[in-house]
Every structure is written in C-alpha cells, then in structure tokens.
Task: inverse folding
C-alpha cells in the first residue's frame, strides 16, 4: 500500500461548523427626503403638500425583477432598514476558539480532484487527545463504492469536548486510485481546547443555614449567556437560589412584557455571582462536608450550548451538635459576693440516650481567681437524657469582681461516653455593688 | 462655501411666482437632480463624483440649496466608496450646520415663503457616522447622541406641523437605529436591549423592530426571550389581519418576516429541514426575499448538502442579481467554494469577474477573498 504524499487523487477539506451568526453592519442607506431637500422644508405648507407625492413617485418599492437598479443599497424602504441587522446569516469565517463543554462540529468533504474515478473508499475520522483516541466516523463496514472524477463525498461529525489541551482531528482515507493502486491518505487538523470559565466558591454558615456564594468568571472571547446555573446538593442537603429583588424601575409593565434582562457575562474576564441557601436535612450522624456541585449551562452565538459541572464543593466541616446548652434566664441584678442563679436547659439532639452528665466551670490557666465561680459544690450532677430529650437545671454562681464580667468555661461532661463538651460561649454579666 | 458666492447667488433670484410649479419634477428641486438620483439608484457613485465636480467647476449650481444637495451626494458617494478621509474633508467645508448661511430666510429673494434650515438631514447623520468609520468611535458616538438630542428638540418645536413632525419622527428612529447598530457591532448587547426597550416604549410596536429584538436575543443565546418576541410579532400579524392597518409593511413582507422568524427558531433547534421549509414558503411568496434565500442555502449546508447550498446562491445571483448581490451572500458562497473545491481559486475568479462587470461601484470586492 503506497503512502507517498506524492500524488493523491483525494484530498480532505474541513470546515468547522459552529453556528452561523447574524451579519451586523450599519447600512449606508438614507431616506430620499433627507438627501434631496433641506431638513426644514416641510414646514413650508406648499412643500408639505407637494413634496411627499413627488418623492413617493420616484422612490417606489422594488417589486419588479426587471428593475435593474441597486436602489435597495441606497434608499431606506422601511424605517427598520437603518437597523444594522437584516437577518442575513454568515458562515463561521474562522476556526475560532474551542472551549471545554462545547460541541465540536465539522463539515468534512473528501474531494477527488483527479481525472479518474477512485473506488472502494474507506473513510475514518477520529479525535486524538493526550489521553485517548475517539472514533467519530468509520465507513470500513460499508466503504464508499466510488467517487467520480471531480466528485465529492461529504460528512458532518460532532464531538462533545471533554478534555483540555491539544486535540487533533485525524481524517484518513484508504482507496483504490485510477491506476488500481491502493492508497492511504492521512490528514491532520489540530486545535487546542481551553477552559471557558472558572468558578470560585465561598461557604459561610449563619446559624442553621449554610450559604454558598459562587463567582463565575468568563475567560472566553465572547459574551456568555447563562442559561442555567444550578446547584445540585449532595445527599442530605437541600438548596435554593437566593435572588435580589427587582429594581423598581424594571417593573415597567410594557417592557417587562417584552423581555426580562438576560444574565450575560462579558467576555474576557466578566463575572457574575450566584448565592444559594443550603439546609441540611438530617440531624443524624452524617458528618460529610460535601455540599454538592454546580451544573452550568451557557449559550453563545445563536444559542450554541456549552455545559460544565464543577467538582464537589466542600463546606466547613459540620460538627453536628449532640448536646445543646441554652441559657434560659440570667438575673437582671447581680451583686458582688452575692450568690445568684442561672437557669439553663440541656438538650439531647441525638437519637440515643446520653449521659448522665457532670457540669462544672473549668479552671483556666491564669493565676487570677476567676471572676465568677460556682457557689457550693464545684461539680453538678445531671441525670441521663433520653433521645431528643431536655432537662432544665440551675447553676448557683457567685461573682467576686465588679463590673462587666464573663461566665466562662461551663463544661458538660458525659460520664458514660467520657466526652467533654464546651457548648456555651462566654456569657457576659454586670456585677454591681449591693 | 464662502459668503461671496452666496451673495452672488442671491442676486440671481428665482421666480417667486407662486403659480410656477416648484415641485413638478425632481429637477425642480435641484439642478439635474433626476440624473443624480438615477446614478445613485444604479450604484454609480464614481459617476456622481464626476458629475458633482463638473457642476462645480462649470458653475452650474445657482442656488444655495443646489450646493448643499450636491455636497450631500458627494459626501455620500465618498462614504459609499469607502473614501472616508475624503468624505471628512468635504464635510469640513461646511463649517457649522446651524449657520445663517444655510437658512432659507437668509435668501428671501430665492425662498420668499420659506424659513428654517436647508441642510439636508443626511449631512448631519454622515457627520456623526464618518468619525466612526475612520476609527474614532468615541467622537462619532458622542455626535450621534448629540444628534438624537437635536432631533428630539425639533420634535418639541414642530408640534403644529403635521408633515414635519412625521419627518422628524422618522429621523428620530433613523438616528436611534444608527446608535443601536454601532453598539451592536461592538457587542454591547446590554445597551442595545435598553435602547430597543426605549424605542418600543415610545409607542413603536413595529413588528420588524420586535423581530430584530428577537434576533438580538437569539444572537446572545437567550432563546426563550427570542421566542417571546417572535410570538408577539405573530400576534401583531393576526391583529393586522383582523382589521388593523400597517401602511409601512405589506402583507407579503409581514408574512415573510413571521416565516423567517419561525425558520430561525427551527434553525437554532437544529431542525434544518423545517427551517428550509419556512424559507421556501418565503421565497414562493416573494422570489426576491434574499434573506430567505441566503439562509436557506446555509441550512442546506448544515444538512450536509453542500452542492445544493451552492446552487441556491448561484441561482439567486443569476435570477435576481440586483437584490442578491450583497457582500454577505458572496462571503458565504466563497466559503462554500473553499470547502467544495480543492482548487477553489478558479471558480472564485469566475465569480469575481462576473461581479466586476455587474456590481455597483460601492460593492466591496474583498468579500471574495481572492
């Protein structure tokens, strides 16, 4: 089988077939009245009545194919003719950039430019990347019987781009040429796939709710219309998107009817932010901090779609509270060296029995005496709590210093599981003189 | 135009006889205007430059408005031939559009019953457009926005003049379209959508404008929005048939617009077969609907039928050259030739030669990419 590049009867012609675009050009067309008379002439009543019919008589619409003038390139026939978009579509004029998540589509034509028929043509088209070789077309099971001199065989291939970096479209043809020799024609068309966008996320926990902020940045050369940006929560999570209220001026009913403003991210570095509210739907032991992932669908030119998914997004490690300690009541007046009682509630958030417990104020390392101490037995015993149960109790305390002081280090120790919990942040009190 | 020349012309007073018909023919409006208009219709812009030069050197222009009309044709011709620097020089000879030199009342002997500006409005428009064509986009856009203010000022002034108001309203749309086109060219889609919103809210429920809005929405990828706009256009068509009246758009044009909109929706959904069907309906109704012809050819190509797509375009050039011969169609045809033929330079040369024989002076032959 001859592989000389010398003389091949066949040759591949390839054209990227992304979507066409509208031709945009401010036309150099005028209204006849704006050219042949002065702008204020119609203030003259005689002109106002005589001129329009005169002009109409000489500016008739082009309805006759025998009218061999190019007046449609010169005169406006409808007010919208001066709007630089006629609806004429243009084929893609350059290969352009290809991005991850898009679909690569190409018209491939194999031409026989020789003077002889070629027979038994087996055609193959593949995409070769760093990692793999993907077959797009293979006619070896039913080869093309013949391509006449000057003839063509066309096909269109599509490939969803899922890898970055160098790609090669490899087109090969094996055929019998005019002399009966079996020839092999390989042709290679290279392109690079780049990343169209980057996603930066921030996770914040506010009380019971986790907020996910996602910032999408557009690295492409065209504007991206964000068709859908959806957060798919992981198991045990639910999500809903948080949107800003509409600006008052956008509530104009007529224009609302016409269209709602699209989310369009400017090319070359434009960004858009999304905010999601996530709720954990289980109180159970699921300790996973995987929140979920973002599914992003965008559209460019004439709706050309692209789709990407982020990696799993991680939240801050969630430590599910097993027990919760709440301050129910602190006396409004606390006097120096006078005992006072703080009403507390201990809740069990788990499905199992917890406890019994011991409660104390932990000693810190400082040499200073603590400002607030337990008055009486330094350790308090609390009974077991059943699943999701709660228990009220009172801590008897005494303050030894004046002014703003802190009740710190309330520690709850689970005697059976041998677990220490420090479930309360510092509590501020004001200690007054008697 | 200097003051001396103008004073001379004032002395040569035209007949102020109210019975003489000043509006009998185009030539009554300006010296040999019919010939200028005819040349422009045929795209013979070089001949227009010659004619203007000759008229000036032979002192054939007798009134101030003759000079201004010829100036306007000259600037337009230079712009058409893409000689923008020369167009700018020519425009600069008009120092100030609002000068009294260009007002009817300055020459009561020539224009006894008239007052106001005799500047052809297209000169103001070209004054804004040419800087953009020369690459000075900011200057041009500023002038466009100032021009828009000027037009809106005139609209307030001319409340009592019915025909004038109509003209100035047309000019307002004309200038706004020019601004939108420029922003569109620069892909400033947000601004375009706002400006169109503005046009629509000024009571312009023009089906063609709404269709163009749909096109823009489609271009940026907002397919839902585009469908919404196109649905509105279809609704307007039904209302029209039910007894509305649109003097600006004929029935055929309206129906074709709706069909073309539908075709786009199919095209975007990759249903090229249905898109072709819609375009064929358009062509059947109006054989000169070049947008339908061109777009149908593209759909055929996306259907892997390169041969037929080429045939459709070649056929249109043969059948209706004066509408089909446009740069976009030629660009598409040449792209198809490059794909279909290994030795495509031959066939492109044939096309190019034919164009050279048939095309108007302003045709941009770089579209053949030879």
Result:
């Amino acid at each position: 089988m001859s592989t000389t590049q010398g003389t091949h009867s066949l040759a591949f012609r390839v054209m990227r077939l992304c979507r066409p675009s509208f031709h945009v050009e401010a036309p150099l067309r005028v209204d006849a009245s704006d050219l042949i008379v002065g702008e204020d002439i119609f203030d003259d009543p005689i002109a106002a009545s005589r001129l329009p019919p005169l002009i109409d008589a000489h500016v008739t619409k082009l309805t006759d194919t025998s009218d061999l003038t190019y007046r449609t390139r010169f005169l406006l026939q409808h007010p919208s003719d001066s709007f630089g978009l006629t609806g004429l579509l243009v084929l893609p004029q350059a290969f352009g950039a290809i991005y991850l998540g898009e679909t690569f589509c190409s018209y491939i034509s194999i031409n026989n430019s020789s003077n002889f028929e070629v027979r038994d043509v087996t055609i193959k088209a593949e995409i070769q990347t760093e990692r793999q070789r993907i077959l797009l077309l293979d006619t070896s099971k039913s080869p093309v019987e013949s391509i006449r001199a000057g003839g063509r065989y066309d096909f269109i291939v599509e490939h969803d781009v899922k890898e970055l970096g160098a790609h090669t479209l490899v087109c090969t043809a094996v055929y019998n040429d005019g002399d009966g020799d079996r020839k092999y024609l390989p042709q290679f068309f290279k392109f690079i796939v780049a990343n169209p966008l980057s996603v930066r996320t921030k996770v914040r926990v506010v009380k019971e709710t986790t907020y996910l902020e996602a910032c999408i940045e557009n690295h492409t050369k065209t504007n991206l219309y964000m068709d859908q940006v959806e957060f798919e929560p992981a198991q045990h999570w639910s999500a809903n998107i948080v949107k800003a209220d509409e600006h008052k001026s956008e509530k104009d009913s007529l224009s609302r009817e016409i269209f709602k403003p699209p989310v369009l991210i400017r090319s070359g570095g434009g960004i858009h932010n999304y905010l999601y509210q996530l709720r954990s739907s289980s109180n159970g032991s699921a300790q996973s901090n995987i929140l979920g992932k973002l599914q992003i669908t965008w559209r460019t030119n004439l709706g050309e779609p692209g789709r990407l998914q982020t990696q799993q997004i991680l939240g801050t490690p969630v430590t599910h509270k097993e027990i919760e300690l709440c301050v129910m009541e602190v006396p409004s007046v606390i006097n120096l060296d006078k005992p006072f009682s703080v009403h507390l509630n201990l809740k069990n958030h788990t499905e199992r029995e917890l406890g019994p417990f011991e409660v104390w104020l932990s000693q810190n390392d400082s040499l200073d005496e603590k400002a607030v101490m337990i008055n009486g037995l330094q350790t308090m015993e609390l009974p077991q709590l059943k699943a999701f149960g709660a228990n009220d109790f009172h801590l008897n305390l005494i303050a030894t210093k004046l002014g703003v002081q802190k009740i710190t280090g309330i520690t709850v120790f689970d005697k059976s599981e041998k677990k220490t919990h420090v479930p309360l942040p510092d509590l501020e009190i004001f200690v007054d003189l008697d | 135009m200097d003051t001396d020349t103008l004073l001379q012309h004032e002395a040569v007073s035209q007949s102020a006889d109210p019975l003489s018909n000043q509006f009998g023919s185009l030539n009554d409006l300006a010296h040999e205007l019919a010939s200028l208009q005819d040349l422009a219709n045929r795209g013979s812009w070089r001949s227009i430059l010659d004619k203007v030069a000759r008229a000036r050197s032979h002192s054939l222009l007798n009134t101030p408005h003759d000079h201004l009309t010829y100036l306007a044709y000259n600037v337009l011709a230079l712009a058409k031939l893409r000689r923008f620097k020369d167009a700018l020089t020519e425009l600069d000879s008009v120092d100030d559009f609002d000068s009294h030199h260009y007002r009817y009342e300055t020459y009561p002997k020539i224009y006894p019953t008239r007052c106001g500006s005799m500047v052809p409005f297209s000169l103001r428009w070209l004054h804004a457009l040419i800087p953009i064509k020369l690459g000075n986009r900011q200057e041009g856009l500023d002038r466009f926005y100032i021009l828009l203010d000027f037009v809106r000022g005139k609209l307030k002034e001319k409340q009592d003049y019915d025909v004038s108001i109509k003209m100035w309203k047309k000019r307002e749309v004309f200038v706004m379209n020019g601004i939108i086109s420029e922003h569109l060219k620069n892909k400033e889609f947000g601004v375009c959508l706002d400006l169109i919103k503005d046009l629509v809210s000024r009571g312009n429920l023009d089906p063609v404008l709404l269709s163009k809005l749909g096109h823009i929405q489609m271009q940026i990828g907002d397919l839902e929005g585009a469908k919404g706009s196109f649905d509105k256009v279809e609704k307007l068509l039904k209302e029209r048939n039910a007894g509305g009246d649109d003097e600006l758009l004929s029935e055929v044009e309206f129906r074709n617009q709706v069909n073309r909109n539908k075709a786009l929706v199919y095209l975007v959904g990759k249903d090229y077969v249905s898109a072709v069907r819609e375009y064929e309906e358009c062509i059947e109704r109006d054989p000169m609907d070049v947008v339908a012809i061109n777009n149908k050819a593209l759909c055929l190509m996306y259907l892997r039928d390169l041969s037929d797509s080429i045939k459709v375009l070649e056929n249109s050039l043969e059948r209706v050259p004066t509408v089909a011969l446009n740069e976009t169609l030629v660009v598409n045809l040449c792209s198809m030739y490059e794909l279909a033929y290994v030795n495509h330079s031959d066939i492109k040369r044939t096309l190019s030669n034919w164009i050279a024989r048939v095309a108007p002076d302003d045709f941009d032959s770089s579209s053949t990419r030879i």
DSSP finds 19 helices and no strands in chain B. Chain B touches chain A through 122 residues (CB under 8 Å). Residues 7-19 of chain B have pLDDT under 50 and may be disordered.
